[in-house]
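hey can u check if this looks right to u? its 166 residues, i copy pasted from the old doc so theres a chance i mangled smth
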Amino acid sequence: SSGINAEYGGSTLVEANPGPNQNQPKAAAAAAPVKLTKCQPLLPNSAVTDTLPSDHTQLRHLKSRPIGELFSLYEDHLRHTAVSISEEQNKLTRTIKDHEVAVAQILAVSQKKQQVYTVWGGSIQGSIRDISLSLGEIQKTLDTLVPVVNELNSLLPVNERMQTFS
């Protein structure tokens, strides 16, 4: 079939000559083109009834079989598209659920580690506090012992003395 593009209402429509039918000679098929340029583009049902011409001569020239086949092909295309979209949505949903589960697992592990680190941190902090107290006591002891050792050192003969502590 050959086609000529025509502008109609902002939409490009095609005027097509159907191929020869088994019951129709080639010359008759070429002489009776299907004129789609007179048809409105697909509109909502309420708008279609307002825009249809009062005489349905243009619609009578349309062959119902080719139009039915066109609509059947379009319906098949829409069905396949819907199935494809549905499959992709299901894949996306599964992927999202898998990611949600993985994130929940990571969050649970992170919370457990945080609890362990909090306990360790408290334990280390307590140990540091104890060590600091011990070091403070050692410092006080040294502060009291150094003058005593220096005093004792000064009582020794010069050849037996140690270096003075400061």
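Confidence is low (pLDDT under 50) at residues 1-18, 31-50.
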